């Protein structure tokens, strides 16, 4: 009983900590934005506008008030779920983010699944066959995945598969020009198209997805493979594995029933970081493939000094970050009995 | 007989020591090998970087030294870009920018992060709580986005990019060093140093810190591999160093549209350069971390 109580209290203190982090991120972004552009009115009025018009716009946007008051007003809006209005799209930032989220989620989900699976397999094979050809090949590819900028991988894939071989479509987003989005149920174009029986659309969407998916999955695969290999090597070196070997247990059992379990924790930790990265829109992957997700939105926002949009995106990313790590902590306590919250 | 119930780290230490020589012999050669490869590559790149300040085949910043969009040839080894600049000369000159920024940023992050992390872990209490919360806030940002935001705030320029990229990296060092200090704070050598009358700061900086640096140095090289990519990413977006100056990421960006029309060489060579630099740092860091663990 008391253990239960203590646990819920520590969960509560984690939640408070998470809130503090989100508030800190929001605050830092707000003031950074003020430094970038102390007077955003110039983005709204024409350079020829007279002072009266400027003052009017400033008053309308609340920019005539002291910065601290603006900050408090901004926090008040956030609490009510109002992220402000993007000046480049003219839409509420919340609507902008929500409409772009499915594209990011679709790309990120598939990439995470594929990248993680391949990473785990390559890592395990590398560790079990340490020093063999497979291990060396795996390590080589892993290092390349860690050292290559994703935008460059994307460009090279485009060059090979679109320009030279001509088997992949160009970087025009989720569907080729001329195709209409299928009726939206899940927000995942491929699945929506299948659900509504539009096979051709589903096929086209899959083709559009292929190259960005490979690019992102490659970036996810590399750190996972490295973590799995290191953790698995460590596990294979441990006493209980030697004992199990001495007792004559089959290699297969030792590797996949005993050693593998100990790989789970470091992989979970790495996965948390990778999930945060993928779901907050791999900015440059989306940029290279003109993928209409939130990463692309953030990139545009920064290049156009669209602060409401930047702040909205950063808030989303920060909330995502604290939620993922909160879940990780809870999961850790569940998976590893030695860990107490 | 439940073998899975005993994956106990602390109990494993005496036996791992007996186990180590066998493993070391097995792994040492390839590790040392890849570390040597990394060191050689970084050295070569440094030589190229410094050399490019004295000699490049053509002026890297001049356009029209050849016709635009020439494929690689004996005259222009890496071809020319859309303004007719020599890609080989630019790739050489960019080595100075990218290697320089990467090394400087890592050095700053290493020094600042180590001092902050050491003090935070050693002093503890409210200071530690505040510092760690702040580090967590920095880490809650997507790294590239934080860098982009800060560069937008402080404006472009080589120095600004160095500072910004180092700030993004600092939390990693703070956490790493803090954890090291916390775990060693009450070890005998530290207690002994304290007992013979050393001041607190001397215990920290002369006794604890030098004994905690091995993993930090290894990490800094892995970190450099990541920093090289971030620097190139900023250049690719067009935030960062002065537009038009030779930098691998911005060179790739300049060739981005040409790739779709088949002129692959403009982006490919600087991209390979980033891969080589980043991979070299990674190999060094990997080797350092490994040998540190086996000590």
TrEMBL record, chain A:
Keyword Transport attached: yes
Keyword field contains Transit peptide: no
Membrane topology, record value: Multi-pass membrane protein
Every ABC transmembrane type-1 domain range: 101-332
One term of GO molecular function: dipeptide transmembrane transporter activity
Primary subcellular site in the record, as a coarse category: membrane
GO cellular component: plasma membrane
Transmembrane annotation, as ranges: 12-33, 107-128, 140-168, 199-222, 263-289, 309-332
Compartments where found: Cell membrane
UniProt xrefs under SUPFAM superfamilies: MetI-like
Superkingdom per UniProt: Bacteria
Matches recorded under Pfam families: BPD_transp_1, BPD_transp_1_N
Family indicated by similarity: Belongs to the binding-protein-dependent transport system permease family.
The protein, known as: ABC transporter permease
Automatic annotation (TrEMBL), chain B:
Record GO cellular component, one term: plasma membrane
Name by which UniProt lists this protein: ABC transporter permease
Organism: Nakamurella leprariae
Every ABC transmembrane type-1 domain range: 95-285
Bilayer topology: Multi-pass membrane protein
UniProt similarity note: Belongs to the binding-protein-dependent transport system permease family.
Biased composition annotated in UniProt, kind: Polar residues: 1-13
Localization per Swiss-Prot or TrEMBL: Cell membrane
